[in-house]
Amino acid sequence: MNPSTPAEPSADGRGDVLIHDPSLRDGHHAVRHQLGAEQLRAYAEAADAAGVPVVEVGHGNGLGASSLQAGQARLSDDEMLAVVREALTRSRMGVFMLPGWGTTANLRKAIAHGVDVVRIGTHCTESDLAERHLGFLLEAGVEAQGVLLMSHMAPPERLAKECAQLVSYGASAVGIFDSAGHYLPDDVTERITAIRAAVDVPVAFHGHNNLGMAVANSVAAVAAGATTLDACARGFGAGAGNTQLEVLVPVLERMGYRTGIDLYGLLDAADIAERHLMPAPPTIDSVAVVSGLAGVFSGFKTRVLDISRREGVDPRDVFFELGRRQAVAGQEDLIVDVALGLRQGRLD
Amino acid sequence: MNPSTPAEPSADGRGDVLIHDPSLRDGHHAVRHQLGAEQLRAYAEAADAAGVPVVEVGHGNGLGASSLQAGQARLSDDEMLAVVREALTRSRMGVFMLPGWGTTANLRKAIAHGVDVVRIGTHCTESDLAERHLGFLLEAGVEAQGVLLMSHMAPPERLAKECAQLVSYGASAVGIFDSAGHYLPDDVTERITAIRAAVDVPVAFHGHNNLGMAVANSVAAVAAGATTLDACARGFGAGAGNTQLEVLVPVLERMGYRTGIDLYGLLDAADIAERHLMPAPPTIDSVAVVSGLAGVFSGFKTRVLDISRREGVDPRDVFFELGRRQAVAGQEDLIVDVALGLRQGRLD
């Protein structure tokens, strides 16, 4: 799609790490999906100049997700894709889609805009939901990856099985997302090792920083055989943010991995992101610590705080109980149940 | 000194980690040493309530350092020590001193205020500068620790030798500071292992977060045998900040270590710190990344930026060259040399 696509790192080159940058997609969560065209352009151009291999763009929840329920983006998918496509000369353009939010029609549109890499995401135990879309992309000849969200909720063997299934559907790469920022490095090592043993395609890791471990977890992932790492400028993303891109890259290079990214260009891009994209870089607040420990999707934050206040219970107790109940996105009703239960002392 | 000193973790209890909290000392660097009595009191009371074992207080550079050169603190050492002493019921009170900035007279005053733990810090290769003060404290019967700053500048064997020397002077514990935030976990493992092999006293690690590794480095330190970890609420400290206390503690507990600290109490203390002590929690900006990579003291930041602007050179080049020249605090004149050299192309 992109005539000047940079060379992929050699699949067997042990030292090569492919950086996938979702700043303009995951970062959208931190600004209620309100990035404008000038912001997208400024960052995409800077990332492109630095040689970031993949620049992902879109609503925080991916293609087709702009809605009252998930938050209405300032720009349409069409507008976002057009701006970023135009800004990129070397970097490949990526998009993300959650089946249910997005459909084949959205994929068609993205293809028309010249998307290079499409990621289809599902909950970590529901890879079958990606089958249709991965099949469609395979047929369309577009690079299609399958990624598993909230991956801490499944044991290594299960993740390996789900990843193998994604490959059978046509995924040319698979990945796990630490959506709740729950992992410690050994957790990542175990899971990536299991997945690597089960599939022959590149494996990606996407970290969040709730427990201050995003960079260390990413390093653990490549040490265990992952070859793609997600990271965002200044960690731009919901809650405690993602792995910080301009920190991760020089750390990897110092350890002997090669990213092909220019450090000063990357730092410039991160400065642009801080100045123009976000009100402030993400930090790890107390709610982020608790939701990371509890393994709860950080998107629950506002609702947990609101309901806890209303019911007069400690939001931290609510998070830990949601974690025990293995709550997943879409189960927001559980928050009220848990808060009421705590108020009535049923859970103590 | 403190009648209600909490029990120390058993020296041989493999799972116990003693948390040493310098928020009210290292954090001072982030606010030009301007914390007032109400701020010190609010945080000290909250840390005490959470069961934080040691609360360190003072000017960022320690006892006696308030000056035009290092920055004048809002409160005198006497005022700071009196407020914190009064606020603590269970936690022990710590102070820090750099020989040269502080003298025996300052130590006498701290003892009169009932200080429980005194740390004498020197550059990593100059432990002999701590001899007199450690000897004085030993005689006075006050717990005295020796800590090595900018410890990445010396190889493991040298640090081990310096630590053994600190013990010979009377230090009841020793430690290494990653003042520049330069370490990756393997660096820490190597150094703590070497020190543990050389001394029979508890070993401490004090991290900074320039490369996003403060928590991971601290975990590596305890895995290698350190039993004391420094950490600050929200990472409150200069530049990229210190290891984030309320993140580190639950991570340690999850890994099976015991800190004796109450999680909710600790999160409350961190919330108080964020609300009342700092303009904003520290984040990792581009200068912090570069100074961490270069291994340069982050206190150089303002001067490097000013001089680079004046001379029309890239401050990042200045940092890397300062790192190559192994610049240490006190060598601020080097910044001008380096900037001029870069401008004249002598260093390219």
UniProtKB/TrEMBL annotation, chains A, B:
Catalytic activity: (S)-4-hydroxy-2-oxopentanoate = acetaldehyde + pyruvate; (S)-4-hydroxy-2-oxohexanoate = propanal + pyruvate
Enzyme class: lyase
Binding site for substrate: 25-26, 179, 206
Gene3D superfamilies (alphabetical): 1.10.8.60, Aldolase class I
Amino acid composition bias (Basic and acidic residues), ranges on this chain: 11-21
Protein residues bound to Mn(2+): 26, 206, 208
Active site per database record: 29 (proton acceptor)
EC number assigned by the record: 4.1.3.39
Keywords carried by this UniProt record: Aromatic hydrocarbons catabolism, Lyase, Manganese, Metal-binding
Positions of the UniProt region annotated as Disordered: 1-21
Site (Transition state stabilizer): 25
One Pfam family linked to the record: DmpG_comm
Domain Pyruvate carboxyltransferase residues, every copy: 17-267
Entry's family note: Belongs to the 4-hydroxy-2-oxovalerate aldolase family.
Alphabetical list of HAMAP family matching this protein: HOA
UniProt cross-references to NCBIfam families, sorted A to Z: 4OH_2_O_val_ald, PRK08195.1
Protein name, per record: 4-hydroxy-2-oxovalerate aldolase
Protein encoded by which gene: dmpG
